[in-house]
Amino acid sequence: MPFTVPTKCSMTYPETIVNTHPNLFRIDSNLNKLVKRIELLNYINPINIEQEKRNFFSSKYNVNPNFKYRKIDFNAHKLHQELFSQDIDSIKDEETRAFYRDVIYDYSGLIECIETIGMGPKFYFNSLKSFGTPTQKDVDNAKFILHFEDEEYDQEMFPVFNATEAAEYFAEFTKKFDFSFNLKFSTKISAAAMVQNNTKTLVLKKNHRFSANQLKVLANHEIGVHMVTTFNGADQSLKIFRNGFPKNLETQEGLAVFSEYMSGCLTLYRLKELSYRVLAADSLRKGYDFCATFDLLHTRYKLNREEAYAISLRAHRGGGLTKDHLYLTGLKKIYNHYQKDKNLDNLLAGKVSIENLPIISKWQKEGLASEIIHKNHAFDSVSNESDKLEFILQNLK
What we know:
By secondary structure, the protein is mainly alpha-helical.
C-alpha cells in the first residue's frame, strides 16, 4: 500500500568537491554498490512467525520454535573479497581513511551475520561481534527501571486500531515532512513496524492491533527518526551516510526512543519493554534457549504470553540476536548528549553514530557533508511531563 507526500527539497553538490577528492568518492561509490543490499532486518525476521507461535503455545511453552528464514540473494564470499579489495590507502586524509577502514570491517561483520542466520551459535557469535552483549551495568539499569510500580492503564494504552487505521494515522503524521515513502503490510516482521532503509519503506505488521499511544510512539520513532535519517542520508554527497556508519544502531535507536521522550509519548510501560529486551539479550549469554527466555519473562516477570513471546522472538531470531540491548544504552547516551548540546541535527544527517560526530563536522567544513534538510520536530522542545521518567533517565548509570 504505497502513499506519497510531495518532495519539496533535494540537494546537489558541485563537481569540484568530487574532483578534489576523487579516490574518496570512487571508494565511497564502490562501497555503496556493494553494501546497499546488506540490511540485516531484511533477512533476520523468520518467515513462519505466526505458525511457530501457534505451535509454541499449543506445546504449553515446552517446544522451541523452529524458525525459517528467507534465503540471501547475494554471494557473501564474493562480497567479502570485493570489500577488502578497496584501495583504502589511496584516501589521502588520515582520519577519513581510518573511518572507511572501519566501514569495511563493520560491513564484513554484518555479512557474516546474514550468511549465518539460522545457524545457532555461529550466528550468535557473529551477532556479538557486531552488536555486543549487555554488560552488568546494562542489566542493573534494566532492573532499576523494572522496580518502579506499573502505571495505571489509561484509554490510550488499549490496542484498538488495526493496521489500515495505523497507516492512515502515519499518512497524516507524515504531512509534517518534505519526503515521500512507501508503506506496506507484512506478517513476517517481529516488530509492530519497521523502516526498510534502502527501499524507503515503512512496514507495518498486518495482524497487529495498535493503541493510540503506540501510534504516537511509532510515528515519532520510525518516521521522526528512522525515516528522517534515511532521507537526510540520501541527500548527502557521500553515500556512507545512507548506508550507515560503523556501529550506528545504538545511536539510531537511542535517537528514536529519545524522540518518543521529547514528543511526550514515552511511558514507563515502554521503558520496561526495552528493559525486558535487555534481560532477554542477556539470557543468550547465559545459554538460555527460547523456552527458558520465555519462561523468564512470562513466569518470573509476569508478562502476558504475547508480550513474552514477542520479546523472546526478537532475542532468539537468527540463532541469538543481541542488538536489542542497545535501545536503552543508546537512549542514555543521547539523553546525556542532549544535556550538553541541544542541537541534535548532525545526528540526523544519516545513519550515523554519535562517536563519529567529529568527522561529520570536519566533512561539513570541507564541503563533503551538508546541513540536514529534514528535521525531527519533536526535538524542538521537551514535551515530556513525567517527573518519574525524567528521574529514571537522570539516574541510569
